[in-house]
Amino acid sequence: MAILYGVVIDKMRSIDDINIILKELGADLLFLGYFRWRGMATVERQTDVYGVLKKCIQQIKEENPDLIFVGGLAVQDLNRIEYDPYHKRMIPEEEVWQMTLNPKNTVLT
Predict the structure, then answer these.
(1) Using an 8 Å Cβ cutoff, are 67 and 29 in contact?
(2) Under a CB-based contact definition with an 8 Å cutoff, are residues 78 and 103 in contact?
(3) Domain segments of the chain as ranges
(4) What are phi and psi of 62, to 5 degrees?
(5) CA of residue 9 relative to chain centroid, distance
(6) Could you give the CA distance from residue 93 to residue 96 in angstroms, rounded to a whole number?
(7) Secondary structure of 55-81 as H, E, C letters
(8) pLDDT tens digits, residue range 16-63?
(9) 3-state helix vs strand vs coil in the chain, percent to 5
């Protein structure tokens, strides 16, 4: 069963609570477990949002190893230059342009 959860790092529920929900519903796909309309906001640049997300996904997968976790970024709203908080670097305009031209070659970790 596919479910739409929202954002697992929104702190409305603990990861333990999310795992209980996933198990009770028999979820095999968590749709939009993470989503952002825009690139990283200034406040998110100051935190390790992708590190927190990675830890949450790992905790979810420990309890639900076969679960497919789907996240999303709205590529129609990418800035010419983006910030990658996971690798703590600016993504130059040419690289952002290549991501938009061929997103299947872009792996977000």
Answers:
(1) yes
(2) no
(3) 2-75
(4) -65, -40
(5) 9
(6) 5
(7) HHHHHHHHHCCCCEEEEEECHHHCCCC
(8) 999 999 999 999 999 988 887 665 555 555 567 778 888 999 999 999
(9) 40, 20, 40
Is the pLDDT assigned to residue 109 strictly greater than 50?
no
Share of the chain above pLDDT 70, in %: 73
Could you tell me which residues are beta bridge partners of residue 31? 4
User: CB–CB of 16/53 below 8 Å?
Assistant: no
Burial 25-40 (b: 16+ CB within 10 A, else e): eebeebbebbeeeebb
Quick one: pLDDT at residue 69? 93
- Top pLDDT among 91 and 107 is at 91
Residue type, 105: N
Residue 75 backbone phi and psi in degrees, to 5: -70, -20
CA-based nearest residue to 5, from 85, 81, 70: 70
User: Is-contact 83 92, C-beta < 8 A?
Assistant: no
